[in-house]
Amino acid sequence: CRLGDTRRGIYQTTIASGGDEAAWSEARQACGQSSSNGGVSRGSGMVGRATLGVGYQSDARGAMVIEFEAPGIPATTEEGWAVLGTLDLDGRFAVRQSGHGYAGVSLQTNQSISGFDGDFIIGDVRLGYARYLGAGGQKLSGGVVVSQANLQGDAVVTEYGGQAEYQWGSGDGWWRLNAEAVSQDYEGWARDGGKYDLAIRYLRSTGDDRAWMVGAALELKDADYHGLSYFGGRVFAAAQIPIRENGTYFTGSAVLRSVEYEDVIFLPSRREQRVHLRAGIGIPTPHENLFVEAAITHSARWFNENSGFHSSNSTGGELRLVYRFGQVRQ
């Protein structure tokens, strides 16, 4: 899910894949929707983004399910259509000269229409405090995070833990160093354990609604069953660029992730690489802050040759209504 490929990531929590919970903040921050614990403004208030639309995957099954290899038997493929929805809310409160409280909520859902059935709902809640450290846009924040993922109506995994972030920069650009540690409680003992993430990203935005981000991260998963523990890393980038004065914009993101699972006696070693690409165009409607966004996506996964798992590729498309709302009071 760190790829932004949530459809695949959530389904993997039910099989022997070591899949992660969802994390969507990287792309949101790149598009000017920075969370309330990290922006440069010192005002209070709330900002949000809601989307609703339909999506298609050429191999919806392969995009979500890891399949064992069997000699002479090709991987099973199945396309799929689904209703897609997201909601992101970020707010600041108790604002003082020295700092402010922050809170946030994120929800994502996928409800199948036809083809492969991969319904899910994922949500997370964040709450904490950010303290200004002086000149140079320095800020230190920390808080708690709780998330849960449901697949086909059943709870799959609950995460709870803490996060901390150090921010510095000035003008249109700033750096963020973020650390997160959570305990994962799965339906089934094998994947229970800790998950740790350390990421650094550089974000830049200008007054003409142009924004971009690049970053890199390390991740570590500790599972009760050692074969589901792993260490890996990822690099990512995203951008939103205005292309017409009427508010039409281009948006794009790319993530490359590589992990190596812990060796288990009598089982082959497993290394996994994933890529997720998304490119879209947003067009304003006559209603203020409401856009129509069309995008194409591609996700792929590769395993080492002797892993015993099929690789997969899936290309898709999305058509969404995007609504942005709220404000920060100075």
Write structural notes for this entry.
The chain is mainly β and 330 residues long. 4% of the residues lie in helices and 62% in strands. It has a 14-stranded antiparallel beta barrel. The radius of gyration is 20 Å and the shape is globular. Residues 1-40 have low confidence and may be disordered.
Task: Return residue spans where pLDDT drops below 50 for at least 5 consecutive residues.
Answer: 1-40
For the report, how would you describe the main beta sheet?
A: 14 strands, antiparallel, barrel
Please estimate the helix content: under 10%
Radius of gyration: 20 Å
Percent of residues in beta strands: over 45%
Cα-to-Cα separation, first versus last residue = 35 Å
List keywords for this structure.
330 residues; globular
In short:
Helices cover 4% and strands 62% of the residues. With 330 residues, the protein is mainly beta.
Element layout with pairings:
Blueprint: H1 6-12, H2 25-30, E1 44-57, E2 80-93, E3 99-115, E4 120-134, E5 138-151, E6 154-170, E7 173-186, E8 193-205, E9 211-223, E10 230-242, E11 249-261, E12 271-284, E13 290-303, E14 312-329
Antiparallel strand pairs: 1-2, 1-14, 2-3, 3-4, 4-5, 5-6, 6-7, 7-8, 8-9, 9-10, 10-11, 11-12, 12-13, 13-14
